[in-house]
């Protein structure tokens, strides 16, 4: 589709240090992303700016320096640690004479390499097509050479319009197939709810050790490696917890700062496992100096996918890399577990994690007696769908008296949907 330079294995990396915190990226993280994509770093160029340059993102002098470096090291691709506009990519490619990728394109490429399941491939393709739709115009500069006159007039529909139409049709087809996958997942979740099987979802920054922890707890044998985005396709396994019984543990894709919106939208069906979970195991690489930043980044993404209200149990992982840190459980003032210190690699503290998880899920149930007015049909439907009604009757004035028992997370979600009206009906 594109008349563009082919990407190769030698890359020049470009990192801009902005004074604005919201635009800041980590140059080490870029190198890890590039390594995960299977590309070798030939050179790293850094610069500082207050704001991006409109034409080249970097200044014209730095852009020329990038072009000279590409020639000197024989690089095949230039990768920016930031999001570029289509025009900035086009201008840079014209100057540097090689392929230019931004951070979003790099992450999409890694996801495309990692996708194994049919659903994962569909989600990645959807994200790529949405990203591509804003950049179609670059591939067809030859159309600008069309002229009027006999034999030189273009067709009724230009090639660009044809591509846009084909792309829209492909996106529509993928969305239709993903909707089918979403319904299948929802059916599975409803079955688990009816059987009162709680779901535990692993979340955390990419490369925090989620898949290793998942394998240690479940013996699932899923792919785990010391690289960014080793896991892409979600995996669900049944685990046994004392006093709770069966529970479902879900391993999900890792988060990263400034996760592309196209990816968040495309992975809605997968991320719904996180939204619908009864508790989140937030895995943190405690041996990383920037773990506090990563916690904030993960919580930002959780808010973005409407999973910010789901209860969390913090898992401080990789304590084997720290001196003097033993497996333990930290509790809040009420005695509820809030942090567990483990090493998923060595299996340290896994029994403590199971114990803390059992406590959290066992205490995550709430019981209330409600007096629901006759005009609250929506609330009645929600309670029936959650299969949480223990006993019901009617008062003389027609109000519905109902005893309910449900997970605290379900209660909080329902209360939020009803704009905090639920508390008015508690007897």
TrEMBL record:
Its main location: cytoplasm. Residues 198-365 form the Hflx-type G domain. InterPro entries: EFG_III/V, G_HFLX_dom, GTP-bd, GTP-bd_M, GTPase_HflX, GTPase_HflX_N, GTPase_HflX_N_sf, P-loop_NTPase. GO terms for cellular component: cytoplasm. CDD domains: HflX. Its cofactor is Mg(2+). GTP binds at residues 204-211, 229-233, 251-254, 317-320, 343-345. Mg(2+) binds at residues 211, 231. It is found in: Cytoplasm. It comes from the Bacteria. Keywords: Cytoplasm, GTP-binding, Magnesium, Metal-binding, Nucleotide-binding. The keyword Plastid does not apply. The keyword Cytoplasm applies. SUPFAM superfamilies: EF-G C-terminal domain-like, P-loop containing nucleoside triphosphate hydrolases. Pfam families: GTP-bdg_M, GTP-bdg_N, MMR_HSR1. One of its GO terms (molecular function) is GTP binding. GTPase that associates with the 50S ribosomal subunit and may have a role during protein synthesis or ribosome biogenesis. Belongs to the TRAFAC class OBG-HflX-like GTPase superfamily. HflX GTPase family. Monomer. Associates with the 50S ribosomal subunit. PANTHER family: GTP-BINDING PROTEIN 6-RELATED, GTP-BINDING PROTEIN HFLX. This is GTPase HflX.
């Amino acid at each position: 589709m594109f008349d563009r330079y082919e990407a190769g294995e030698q890359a020049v990396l470009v990192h801009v240090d902005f004074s604005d915190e919201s635009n800041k990226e980590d140059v080490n993280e870029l190198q890890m992303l590039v390594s995960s994509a299977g590309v070798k770093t030939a050179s790293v160029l850094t610069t500082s700016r207050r704001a991006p340059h409109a034409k080249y993102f970097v200044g014209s002098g730095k852009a020329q320096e990038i072009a000279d470096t590409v020639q000197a090291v024989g690089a095949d691709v230039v990768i920016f640690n930031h999001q570029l506009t289509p025009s900035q990519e086009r201008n840079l490619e014209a100057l540097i004479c090689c392929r230019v990728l931004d951070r979003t394109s790099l992450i999409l490429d890694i996801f495309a390499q990692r996708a194994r399941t049919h659903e994962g491939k569909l989600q990645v393709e959807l994200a790529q097509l949405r990203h591509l739709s804003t950049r179609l115009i670059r591939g067809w500069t030859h159309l600008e050479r069309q002229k009027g006159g006999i034999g030189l007039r273009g067709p009724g529909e230009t090639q660009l319009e044809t591509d846009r139409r084909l792309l829209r049709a492909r996106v529509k087809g993928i969305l239709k197939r993903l909707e089918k996958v979403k319904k299948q997942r929802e059916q599975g979740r409803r079955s688990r709810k009816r059987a009162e099987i709680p779901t535990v979802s692993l979340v955390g920054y990419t490369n925090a050790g989620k898949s290793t922890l998942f394998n240690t707890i479940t013996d699932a044998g899923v792919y785990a490696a010391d690289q960014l985005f080793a896991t892409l396709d979600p995996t669900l396994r049944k685990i046994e917890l004392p006093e709770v019984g069966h529970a479902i543990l879900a391993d999900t894709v890792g988060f990263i700062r400034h996760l592309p919106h196209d990816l968040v939208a495309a992975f809605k069906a997968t991320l719904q496992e996180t939204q619908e979970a009864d508790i989140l195991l937030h895995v943190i690489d405690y041996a990383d100096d920037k773990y506090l930043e990563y916690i904030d980044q993960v919580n930002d993404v959780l808010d973005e996918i409407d999973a910010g209200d789901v209860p969390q149990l913090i898992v401080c992982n990789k304590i084997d890399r720290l001196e003097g840190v033993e497996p333990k459980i930290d509790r809040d003032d009420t005695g509820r577990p809030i942090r567990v210190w483990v090493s998923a690699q060595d299996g340290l503290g896994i029994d403590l994690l199971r114990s803390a998880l059992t406590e959290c899920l066992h205490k995550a149930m709430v019981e209330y007696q409600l007096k629901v007015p006759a005009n609250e049909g929506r609330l009645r439907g929600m309670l029936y769908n959650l299969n949480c009604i223990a006993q019901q009757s009617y008062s003389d004035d027609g109000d519905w008296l109902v005893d309910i028992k449900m997970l605290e997370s379900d209660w909080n979600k329902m209360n939020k949907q009803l704009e905090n009206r639920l508390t008015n009906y508690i007897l």
